[in-house]
Amino acid sequence: MHIDPLSHPASDNYKLLSSLVVPRPIAWVSSLNADGVVNLAPFSFFNAVSGNPLYIVISIGLNDAGEMKDTAKNIVAGGEFVVNLVTEELFDAMNISAADFPPDVSELDAANLHAAPSVKIRVPRVAEAQASLECRLHSTQMLGNNTLVIGEVVMFHVADHLLGPRLHVNNFAPIGRLGAPSVYCRTTDRFDAARISYAEWLKGER
Ligand SMILES: Cc1cc2nc3c(=O)[nH]c(=O)nc-3n(C[C@H](O)[C@H](O)[C@H](O)COP(=O)(O)O)c2cc1C
């Protein structure tokens, strides 16, 4: 079946796209507002896009009132944020933090989480997260109703038990976002597969 987005409402197109481009990682973003309240919210329009320099992107839509969400406002105003990664045991807390709390209520408190200081930026990370990325804002770009945030990772935090020699990460179990409205997956069913060279493919060796 061919589906021309021009023949469908934007809401249907969004559901289709976000059900096909899956699983998506979840950036659980902490940011600070002007009053020093720690804001926390999940975003699955998120990915790593450059290894050197270290750049990540997050796309934040407008809220129902047509205004920037608190996270986008805080990042634009303060230029700093933390991407905390969501592992299985943090799922419920992540889900609570997605509610539309007013700006003066910290989702951290609401979800019974704690702030841990960052090293290079003022914005704290989630103490309970097994991995977090301190980010400085590189730039933003409006894409229709979305603020595309490009951030540079300036510090990694990784739980000691996840790290092997040469920065290999083991037993990291992040949650993935599947289709709309709220389907998720675990990342426990894994397999290893070495890449093959053209020469090996020609010889039919693998
Ligand atoms: C798993 C998950 C992924 C989400 N991904 C996005 C996203 O990519 N972009 C977005 O604008 N909102 C996304 N949301 C909704 C925001 O988390 C929600 O609007 C939140 O209240 C924003 O909080 P804030 O106003 O404190 O920034 C997502 C929600 C969940 C539960």
Describe the structure.
- Helix content is 18%, strand content 32%.
- With 206 residues, the chain is α+β, with helices and mostly antiparallel strands.
- It has a single domain, classed as Roll (Pnp Oxidase, Chain A).
- The strands form three sheets. It has a seven-stranded antiparallel beta sheet, with helices on both faces. The protein has a two-stranded antiparallel sheet with strand order 6-7. A two-stranded antiparallel ribbon has the order 10-11.
- It starts with 9 loop residues before the first helix and ends with a helix.
- The site of flavin mononucleotide (FMN) has 16 residues, from strand 2, strand 4 and helix 2.
CATH class: Mainly Beta
Instruction: Give the name of the CATH superfamily.
Output: Electron Transport, Fmn-binding Protein, Chain A
Largest sheet composition: 7 strands, antiparallel
Low-confidence stretches: none
Q: Looking at the structure, what is the overall shape?
A: globular
Which small molecules are bound?
A: flavin mononucleotide
**CATH-derived architecture:** Roll
- Integer average pLDDT: 95
Distance between the termini: 35 Å
Q: What's the number of domains?
A: 1
Structural class: alpha+beta
Question: What count of helical segments does DSSP give?
Answer: 5
Radius of gyration: 19 Å
* Secondary-structure element pattern, one letter each: HEEEEHEHHEEEEEEH
| Percent helix range | 10-25%
> Biggest sheet: strands side by side, in what order?
2-1-5-8-9-4-3
Number of strands: 11
List keywords for this structure.
Pnp Oxidase, Chain A; globular; two-stranded antiparallel sheet; 32% strand; single chain; 5 helices; 206 residues; 18% helix; seven-stranded antiparallel beta sheet
